[in-house]
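Batch manifest, entry 17 of 40.
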Amino acid sequence: MYSEIIQELSSLNKDDINKIVLSKSKQEIQKATVRPMLLKNNRKWQIEKIINNQAFHSNIEYHDLESDVLSLLEKYEFCDINIILKGKTISYRVSKKKKLFRNEHKTAVKNNTILSHDVPKKYILEEGMPILPLVDLGVFDSNFNVKKSKYDKYKQINRFVEIIADEFKSYDKDELTIIDFGCGKSYLTFIIYYYFAFVKKINVKIMGFDLKDDVVKHCNAIAEKYNYKNIRFITGDISKIETCQEHVDMIITLHACDTATDYALFFAIKNRIKHIFSVPCCQHEVNQQISNKNEFSIILRHGLYKERFSAILTDAIRCEVLQDHGYEVDVVEFVDFENTPKNAMIRAKYKGKQVSLENNMHLKKIVEEFSIRPTILKLFGEKYLRDGE
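Output type: structure tokens
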């Protein structure tokens, strides 16, 4: 049945082949991709097989292309075969009655095929990786290629993962436990799981907490659909969760609304969790409390500026509290995934550093100046608020 494909493949100029994609198998394999490459200045082919969401690679000799492609076809019984060339794509489809259909269409000429085996990855999450959440988000098509209309979102998600990945470049442990507070229906939690489990190959476990029971049920159903066995979601109120019975390495809060971020940071500080990645959202509390009866009233005269200043002040106070409790803190700007204005992530790592008591005095002065009582300070009581409110 596949002899017609192999016959045409052997008639082609191999230098014109960008890649060969085999999909829709009747076996456990999801996809196989064959690409040209250079290995120690020798032209070869690399075969990437995606099996149970994991990638397996092997290299074959340049002249063995036809025989190895035939072996793949016969072993895994692929039904979709795409030979992508410079200027055109030849497609074969095997019907349920095992009839072979051929189609050919022109494509843009690409002369930038990368052959070097040692070229660094452009993105952490590459095209071809079986990232099911990106398919459901509409960023990847069914063959795990980026849709042209979603390329900006693809870059934004990669940027988000890069921010987290930077902190784990030299991570030498084989286990990682993460808590996601206020997880919602965000697919980013699943993408983070994929990165650590299948790219870093770490035994990662994620627990997601959300107030809404229907959201929790939905997320658990998605985890089951993806066969992500070490991720589970729990109905829980952040403000009532003070300790965790098991060791936690990292917490993430992505758009946890208003004071939910404060309770998540309080939990992290109290339990000395090493890594924190927090994207605050809807900082209403200080905006409602802040007084403009001081020398800075010009900043607060207009509602829009008052709202922005209150949000910046809220997060600046959160950063100071983290630093005061031994965390090394930086603020990273990234683009939100719904194409809203740029947002900020608080990234903190516990170092156990001793901080001068002047920090406390600075915070006390600023809360008195603006007559504010942010939740993050109330949770720590008299340490920051003179009257212990």
